[in-house]
Amino acid sequence: MQIELPRAAEVSQAFPAWRLTNPILARLSFEYPQPQEALHRFGLALSAQGQTEPALGILKAALALAPEEADLWNDLASAFYRAGQYAEAGAAQRRSLACDPAQPQGWLLLASIDSALGDAAAAEVGYLAALKLDPYLSEAAFGLGILCFGRRQFTEAVKWLRQSIASGGHHMGLYVCLGQALFLLGDFAAAVSALESAARFPSCDATVVEKLAQLKLIETCVRADAAAAVEAYGQIAGPHASDIDRVTATAFHFLSGFGYRAAAIRLGEWRLGRNPQDAVQRYLLAALRNEAIARAPDDYLVAYFDGFAETFEAKLVDALGYRVPEKLHALLAKTGRRFANGLDLGCGTGLSSPLLRPMVRRLTGVDLSRRMLEKADARRLYDDLVEAEAGDFLDQADEKFDLVVAADVVIYFGDLAPLFARIARVMEPGGLFAFNAETVEAGYRVLPSGRFAQALDYIEAVAAPYFTTVELQMTTIRLEAAQPVEGALVVLQRR
Ligand SMILES: C[S@@+](CC[C@H](N)C(=O)[O-])C[C@H]1O[C@@H](n2cnc3c(N)ncnc32)[C@H](O)[C@@H]1O
Fold it and tell me: What's a BP term from Gene Ontology annotated to this protein (predicted)?
């Protein structure tokens, strides 16, 4: 984008009349005899008064007289930036840096503009250029910290945020961001310390206090008992305390996800003691204790997915990068086949249905969570939706399928032999069975998440009596505790 400037001759001609009719400009002309200087000051004064449009016009007039003035371009960019006109701000600031590239603050402004425009790569270039000129520019290190945080590069984010503090950066947002990054790295003690610094700012609000209290709960659980942790939470949160069942559920999730098994068990036992009917907690505790479990129990699945249905897609797809339906679909599409009768086993909210629908004549979805099925039903893409446990459905089915898809469902089964035998029974010879699994080195085992993981050779051995392998690819399934969960995409063909 180019910034249009008035013609210098027109500005020079109009300037005496402007000075006569505007007392502020008249006074400034007295102080600054050069017209471009007087106009520059006048533009800044208008901008400070919030008169954005007149300020932009006057600054452009000044630039018409002095188009090589880096400071003037800088001030025009700032005025555009404050007005939310980021593209114009970027163009003006690039002109400023072309006139004088040795401006650390100028690069910082350009990086902030690029960041506001959503161009993270350009913003990174700007922040790094600023730091090259002034290694102690704390705002530039802060900007890089925020950028890395946004990219989920938490170790890098912590490095830059700490550099910002070491260079004199001291504001609440800096400590909050550092605390959050440390938390997502599983360093709970350091996260608490950063949030404590944030909480000392007079501007600290209820959100920060609650976050600190929650981190303190998690961190206390790691080194003490759950009751002490809950008490620590209450002391910090005070009137800002949230529902303790919700708070401890979140804390349990993080402790388990970050591998603090003993602490998660302590908190899980505390939660189950408070609420013995909680099927989700009962199962997750059993999983953490590594009890022998053949598959996730129905009461857990129903309670968990009924409670999750509303936020499932936002959380799994948007926040955790879950793309298994798309990835399985791509493998099926590669075969170029069309199918007469498709089964979406554990269909959930029906994420696979828009992808499968064009390749199947008939599509049935099965799930034991009614709330998930309601979401699937709203898509109007299934010919039939059945509320049933997968194994029960397969045992009772009297039709044959030439396509079975189980996206993120096999992970709720440990021992796959009974499931595969049941799937094989309802499949046409030559039919395809597509699914994903999380992987371990040998056999299968339940993970602290309550999901199961299987070894690839175990899967192939269990499948061998009924299926041949068409595709087997390693992939990232989703994020867990900010880390990618690795697994496999598998397509089998019924013999
Ligand atoms: C992670 S979700 C995946 C949903 C969907 N396939 C997708 O890719 O978005 C797992 C779904 O499988 C269902 N599920 C798990 N085990 C099941 C079982 N034994 N019988 C029926 N449904 C089951 C759950 O209720 C849940 O809706």
Answer: methylation
The beta-carbon contacts of 169-176 under 8 Å, at least 24 apart in sequence, are 169/138, 169/139, 169/141, 169/142, 171/201, 172/198, 172/201, 172/203, 172/204, 172/208, 174/142, 174/145, 175/201, 176/208, 176/211
CATH number (domain holding residue 485)? 3.40.50.150
- CA-324 nearest atom, ligand 1: 8
- Domain containing 34: what range? 1-100
The CA 347 to ligand 1 mean position distance, Å, reads: 6
Domain membership flag for residue 229: no
Give the count of domains, the chain: 2
pLDDT at site 319: 82
Please state, as a whole number, how many other Cβ atoms lie within 10 Å of the Cβ of residue 127: 28
Q: Which helix (H) or strand (E) holds 377?
A: helix 370-378
Closest CA to 289 of 260, 309, 265, 263: 265
How far away, in angstroms, is 348 Cα from ligand 1 center? 5
Quote the ligand 1 centre to 276 CA distance (angstroms): 25
Structural contact between residues 221 and 263, judged by C-beta atoms closer than 8 angstroms: yes
- What is the Cα–Cα distance from 41 to 32, expressed in whole angstroms? 9
Q: Which two tokens stand for residue 357?
A: 């629908």
CA-based torsion, 457, 463, 465, 467: positive or negative: negative
- For residue 442, what are the contacts with CB-CB under 8 A and spacing of at least 6? 455, 458
What is the domain-level CATH number for residue 57?
1.25.40.10
**pLDDT at residue 434 in the model:** 98
Q: With respect to residue 95, please indicate whether it lies within any of the assigned structural domains.
A: yes
pLDDT under 50: residue ranges of the chain: none
Please say whether the beta carbons of 5 and 64 come within 8 A: yes
Strand partners for 365:
344, 385
Contacts 24+ apart (CB under 8 A), 93-102: 95/3, 96/70, 96/71, 96/72, 97/70, 99/68, 99/69, 99/70, 99/73, 100/70, 102/133
Give phi and psi for 432, each to the nearest 5. Answer: -110, 140
CA gap 443, 283 in Å, rounded: 21
CB atoms within 10 A of CB 125: 15
